[in-house]
Amino acid sequence: MMRYFCCAILLLMLGCQHVEKPEMPDDLIARDVMIDILTDAYLSNAAKSVNNKVIRQRGIKLDSFLYNKYGIDSLRFVRSHAWYNSDLDTYENMFVEIEKRLAEMAAELDSVNFRKKSPIQKKQDSIRKAKGLIDPAESN
Predict the structure, then answer these.
(1) What is the rounded CA–CA span in Å between residue 24 and residue 33?
(2) Which of 36, 37, 108, 117 has its CA 20 to 30 A from that of 92?
(3) Range of the domain at 36
(4) What is the rounded CA–CA span in Å between residue 13 and residue 3?
(5) Percentages (nearest 5) of helix, strand, coil residues in the chain
(6) 114, 127, 120, 118: which is closest to 136 by C-alpha?
(7) Structural domain includes residue 8
(8) Is 7 domain-assigned?
(9) CB of 20 within 8 A of CB of 83?
(10) Is 0.85 topped by the overall pTM?
């Protein structure tokens, strides 16, 4: 029994490792700019999931677009991302901000897509509904 206990303790000690925090890069991307980049990265990933075929056919490189937009290269992004990622509290706060921005964008787009109909649109819809061209549920 003691032998199993010693083996378990030894395995636990060997299983633990010390993870070193990466050094702060000299060209660290500012926190606010990093939030902008990550927000755009999430939007580009969403675009890929919606219309990946068109993006590939047109040869659009979304990562390169982001790097050019913010004047950075991939190495600088990776180093800065690793730096922010090493401090989980800061990283979590950044993602709260990103979530907030994405929610605001979604609310703004929803308000544009579902704006109130003008009186002319309502009259046209009522005429089309009377002629049976549209479903009555759609005219609301």
Answers:
(1) 16
(2) 108
(3) 24-139
(4) 15
(5) 75, 0, 25
(6) 127
(7) no
(8) no
(9) no
(10) no
Q: How many domains does the chain have?
A: 1
- As given in the structure block, the two tokens for residue 40 are 């755009």
- What contacts 67, CB < 8 A, 6 or more positions away? 73, 74, 77
Say how many CA atoms lie within 13 Å of 87 toward its Cβ.
10
What span, in angstroms and rounded, lies between the C-alpha atoms of 51 and 74? 24
Asked if residue 40 belongs to a domain, the reply is yes
At 139, the pLDDT band (50, 70, 90 cuts) reads very low
Joined together, the tokens standing for residue 13 give 């000690």
CB atoms within 10 A of CB 117: 13
**What pLDDT, in 10s, does the model give residues 30-56?**
999 999 999 999 998 888 878 778 888
Question: Band of the pLDDT at 6, cuts 50, 70, 90?
Answer: low
Q: Are 66 and 11 in contact (CB under 8 A)?
A: no
**φ, ψ for residue 20 (rounded to 5)?**
-85, 140
Among 75, 70, 48, 49, which residue's Cα sits nearest to residue 61?
48
